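Section 3.1: Structural characterization of target chains.
Under the original work plan, the team committed to producing a structural model for every single-chain target entering the pipeline before any wet-lab resources were allocated. The record below documents one such target. The sequence was received from the expression subgroup and is listed exactly as submitted; it comprises 196 residues.
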Amino acid sequence: MSGTRTSGSLLAGLHETRTSWGWFLALGLLLILLGVVCIIGDVTATFATVLVFGWVLIVAGVVELVHAFRVHTWSGFFLNLASALLRGFTGYFLIRYPLAGAVGLTIVLASFFFVSGAFRAIGAGMLRFPRWGWSLLSGIVAMILGVILLSQLPLSSLWFIGFAVGVDLILEGISLVTLATALRHIPERVVLDRAA
């Protein structure tokens, strides 16, 4: 009985989602356009990303500071206070020195790519699960990307973050466009017949 109810609610949700396929398509195309703009203006997009990240940290720091003083009798007061100050100061320094912030973020990302790629490649080689070669290749590519970013510092910090944001926006836009076209091609009659 509950399986029928769940199936009916899923189909009703599919019907609602199908009727707004145009919004998914518009959002996907907008994200693709923004991604292309970010890739073309990668330096500007890098600085914009660093500044936005800095402001987000400042706002989060202020909210956590208010929270710390609202619950000042709690034993975690000093932990909340320290976290709020760290976020606030980090956000301030990212906004005040965006070039240094971009270099710092690029170092963190490059290190992440190298270490996670190494773990992925070593894990794939040791476990040898089905089609492990793709995971090995993915790990090796991530390690190479990390090495390239680190070896080209500080120049790579000017373009990489904006480029990465642009690629992410394009991929997200493509996924929304493909979702919209898939929703558009579901026959209305089939969705309504199965929901009934």
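The first helix runs from residue 2 to 19.
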